[in-house]
Structure of GroES-like protein:
Amino acid sequence: MSLPKQHKVLYLLSKGGALAVQTVDVPSPGPDDVLLKVEAAALNPLDWKIQDAGLFTTAFPTILGWDAAGVVVAVGSKVDRLKVGDRVFVEAHVADSTRTFQQYVATPADFVAKIPDSLSFDEAATLPVSVTTALAGLYNPHEASKSVHLTPPWAQGGSGKYAGKPAVVLGGTSAVGQAVIQFLKLSGFSPIITTASLRNTAFVQSFGATHVVDRTLPRAELVQTIQKIAGGPIDLVYDAISVYETKDLGYEIVSSGGSLIILIPEHADNHKFPSTKDVRVIEAFGEFSVPENREFGAEATVEIEKLLQDGLIKPGIPEVLEGGLNAVQEGLDRIKADKVSGKKLVVHPQETL
């Protein structure tokens, strides 16, 4: 397969700065990597938070983008699970060469999952960050991982293991919330209670939520309603939004001795939890390339393929923005303004002019 020597990349020039498309050399895959032609890349709230505040980022210029779906166009010498022509999806990692707001990415093959024929590139691009974040926070068994250490549903005895145990997901219409709900269902949790706009009730129920509570209720009423539905101690709350308000709500809902999973660490936003009860706060980190996630990540990548193939998990709903990489800023502005609900914005890097 003939490959171009150069490609288009969307750079964030500085913290609080502009995005700019530039032409640079196509990255080369290492022996354990694959090179992907990115057909669809999804936008995440993390992208605008990096642009605005430099969240988790110290060096600029940098490349944003964490979700990609595309085609394998080259494989490293040690890669045997994937081949040129495979349709795949992947989450980006620390290195800019893996970030997805560009036309080609070089990324570790261990964490690249094949797309079933039933899914489009746009649908597959909604999956990587949401699925890896859900899985890492719930199931990673590594003692150093940021996880509840539940038994995965694909492991022996894992499917349905937690039947009868309530769980709460704050932000069920978010991409991460959708993924968490699906895995909680596979693990047997019930009831699965989520907060959302009531207009999205049927939507979040389609992923496995058993109860949908109006997210606009006054705080005290919201807590009371959730606790009444649970009918007993709530040992697991997953905050898929993780702003100050939802973090505090999750802490209030979870029972003493339970676990609250959040996405944004306290040191990153200066939020502080009270110490009024014994709650294990877990800062989920879905990047499979870090040492404590690598073994689980490689295992989970293979299992994700099977779950998708069998229809046991499904993607979110993509909304495609026209204009390739040039449309990213428009999309980030919409996400920041809370003007996206129940969908994941996607761009096609190959359409960039």
Summary: The chain has a mean pLDDT of 96.
